[in-house]
Amino acid sequence: MRPFAEPTSLLKSNAEFLAPFLSQLCSWSLVHSVVPSSMKAACITPILKKAGMDSADAKSYRPISNLSVISKLLKRLVAKQLVSYLKNNNLLPYLQSAYRSHHSTKIAVLKVLADILLALDSGNLVMLAVLDLSATFDSVDHNTLLCRLRTVFVASVLTASNRT
Q1: What is the Cα–Cα distance from 96 to 80, expressed in whole angstroms?
Q2: pLDDT, tens digit, 9 for 90 and up, residues 117-144
Q3: Facing residues of 59 across strands?
């Protein structure tokens, strides 16, 4: 299926007329846990993972998918509900920086530095192991991730969204 690329300017200029229909579409999608196939289609652009990688090797590329604006809207709604659910039920680790407002990676680095300095001041030996997790998501078993989301989070998020 060829992706539907609605012009953003057209959506913005007609927002007051389209908002009720988009709201109904997103609500239906959330209630039924179904994303219409037309919203799953994307334009894929291969981008080199890192400068200097072999451009002739397909493994050197990361696929970048450009979804339609309406798909991105649904994605944001789901993400907002999921993060809200995780926060309200204290399921986010206290020191997690990702997906949280006012929690930057700078603060995470400062926390690690403060812990190291406190340990050194106390006369303790400090060791730091640093891992490059930049390609971690490439190795995630997506079936396991989806199963975990379904069983732990999504059913509750959808139930909560039905109450509002």
Answers
A1: 16
A2: 999 999 999 999 887 776 666 677 777 8
A3: none
Interatomic CA distance for residues 33 and 27, integer angstroms: 10
Query: CA–CA distance from 88 to each of 75, 85, 97, 152 (Å)?
Result: 20, 5, 16, 14
Q: Where are the beta strands (DSSP E) in the chain?
A: 43-48, 61-66
Inform me whether the pLDDT recorded for 161 exceeds 80.
Answer: no
Distance of CA 99 to the CA centre of its chain: 8
Query: Using alpha carbons only, how large is the chain's radius of gyration in Å?
Result: 21
Cα separation, 106 vs 163, whole angstroms = 37
CA-to-CA distance for 149 and 81, rounded, in angstroms? 13
pLDDT in tens, 49-78: 888 889 888 888 888 888 888 888 898 988
Q: Crossing angle, helix 15-32 and helix 69-88, to 10 degrees?
A: 60
- pLDDT value, residue 155: 57
H-helix or E-strand spanning residue 24: helix 15-32
Residue pLDDT, tens place only, 26-39:
999 888 888 888 88
Say if residues 18 and 11 touch (Cβ distance below 8 Å): yes
